[in-house]
Amino acid sequence: MTLEAIDVHHGYDGETVLEGVSLSVPSGEVLAIIGPSGVGKSTLLRLLALFDAPDRGEIEFGSERVWTGSQQRRLEFRRRIGMVFQEASLFDATVRRNAEYGLRVRQSWIGRLRRELSALVGMPAETIEAMEALETVGLQEKANQDAASLSGGEAQRVAFARALAYEPDVLLLDEPTSDLDPRNTAVIENAVLEAKKRGIGVAIATHDMHQAERIADRVAVLLGDGVIEVGDTETVFESPADERTRKFIDGELIY
Amino acid sequence: MSLASGLAVLTPLVVEFPFEWNYVRSIVRVSLYVSLTAVALSTLVSLPVALLVGFKEFRGKTLLTSVINTGMGFPSVVVGLVVLFAISNQGPFGSWDLVFTTEAMIISQFVLAAPVITGVSLAAVSSVEQNVRDAAYALGGTRVDVAIVTIKEARYGIATAVLAGFGRAISEVGSVLIVGGNIAASDGTSVTRTLTTAIQLEAEQGRFETAMLLGAILVVLVLVVNAIVVRLGNGGGRYG
Ligand SMILES: Nc1ncnc2c1ncn2[C@@H]1O[C@H](COP(=O)(O)OP(=O)(O)O)[C@@H](O)[C@H]1O
Ligand SMILES: [Mg+2]
């Protein structure tokens, strides 16, 4: 199931950010989106996550146009996408409740009411999927803690588990590790590779070139107002077709 | 004077006037019925309005915001006057026969409490981070789910809003006196007499002991409702 941007144009208040961007996120593959800060990586990921319709161009999911369909259909599409932001943005609740959120909103109102009531009398329903997702990031023991008690790295790992729990077809990660230490970064990167193994398509915006080299199958370089180059990770890093790519990568690798 | 010594002073009064208890109980019942109903209705209206004003752009938003802000400090006698006119024979709702009823008192307390609850809730929901709302949406939530998350994140502030609204409703005298009429039935029990209007009447007629007992009950009621709402706010911790 491929999520795709086709000749997408988008901007804010008349300022163009993306001009004619085409990019696909196929199943079972990790795509790194690299580019300088402010170039439009987040804008592109938000379009792929169906937050807003692009000013021009199409977003397609499984070759079906998303924005020409009904709102109900769009909700179905959105529910096959998971997204993690730079900040964990956890809900003020337990770790388990956070991990279950995506599953909960997919239930009927009756089912949700029943769960709320049983949680209220101290018998929360076990959610196997949510616990498995927490296990993927090594936090199953913290399930009953308050999210507020976690460290920044742990919180981001929960945010990742929260997006993984409902088994999306596509995961969109917006600089998920840029505030994290190496150990927590490694946990997230392993979880990304784990997701890929399960057939999930992953797009990860990052300005960490080493991270792109470590986990990405393909790399898209976003410079100016568009994608100037897409290719195998090795090709893009070793022998880029575009001179600007080499300059950007060399410049970033200095850090 | 501490609470304990205050109660010590009041205890003999209660013992001396055992016949007052039906009277007192009926007043408490009317007060609670009117104020709790008014606050519940206000909350039902105020939360959606606060979410709308907080997160949507629409025509008349500036006007609505200034109506809310003005309403928060609106004098209760004026509200009573306007409500009385609206439900009087000359008014648009004259045929509903609401003058000097608890329904009329609920209406005027609704008008008094709603702006307070809306205004304080608005501040609370506005402080919920956009990141958290985005996360709910990205995880497959609908607009309604995002609204629910926002209310849950803002629950302490909303509890404060409800408390402030209840405080304003149960402790005001002006409007309930005007639209309710401070009426007691022939057996002496309250029809539209609330704690505040009863205190005013008892004090005016020189029955200070009864007035003070009613005053103490009013304070205890406000404290109890405070405690319950704060507890509810804390208990909402396990959600998502
Ligand atoms: N909601 C918004 N309103 C106005 N401008 C925005 C908004 N979001 C992003 N921008 C602008 O769009 C450009 C691209 O931003 P962004 O997509 O966040 O870049 P990146 O994620 O690559 O750092 C920036 O110039 C930014 O200021
Ligand atoms: Mg960004």
UniProtKB/TrEMBL annotation, chain A:
Among the GO molecular function terms of this UniProt record, one is: ATP hydrolysis activity
Q: Where is the ABC transporter domain?
A: 3-249
Q: Which GO terms describe its cellular component?
A: membrane
Gene3D superfamilies this protein is in? P-loop containing nucleotide triphosphate hydrolases (3.40.50.300)
Per its UniProt record, what SUPFAM superfamilies does this chain match?
A: P-loop containing nucleoside triphosphate hydrolases
Q: Which SMART domains match?
A: AAA (SM00382)
Database matches in Pfam families: ABC_tran
Record has ATP-binding as a keyword: yes
GO annotations under biological process? phosphate ion transmembrane transport
Keywords, A to Z, come to: ATP-binding, Cell membrane, Membrane, Nucleotide-binding, Transport
Q: Which PANTHER family does this UniProt record tie to the protein?
A: ABC TRANSPORTER I FAMILY MEMBER 17
Protein name according to UniProt: ABC transporter
Q: Which organism is it from?
A: Halobiforma nitratireducens JCM 10879
Automatic annotation (TrEMBL), chain B:
Residue ranges annotated for the ABC transmembrane type-1 domain, each copy included: 28-229
Spell out the Pfam families in the cross-references.
BPD_transp_1 (PF00528)
Q: Which GO terms describe its biological process?
A: transmembrane transport
Write the record's keywords in alphabetical order, separated by commas.
Answer: Membrane, Transmembrane, Transmembrane helix, Transport
Tell me how this protein sits in the membrane: Multi-pass membrane protein
Please give an example of a GO cellular component term from this record: plasma membrane
> Which InterPro entries does the UniProt entry name for this protein?
ABC_perm_TupB-like (IPR049783), MetI-like (IPR000515), MetI-like_sf (IPR035906)
Which PROSITE patterns does UniProt cross-reference here? ABC_TM1
PANTHER family attached to this UniProt entry? PERMEASE COMPONENT OF TUNGSTATE ABC TRANSPORTER
Q: Write out the similarity annotation.
A: Belongs to the binding-protein-dependent transport system permease family.
Instruction: List the protein's name.
Output: Binding-protein-dependent transport system inner membrane protein
Q: Where does this protein come from, organism-wise?
A: Halobiforma nitratireducens JCM 10879
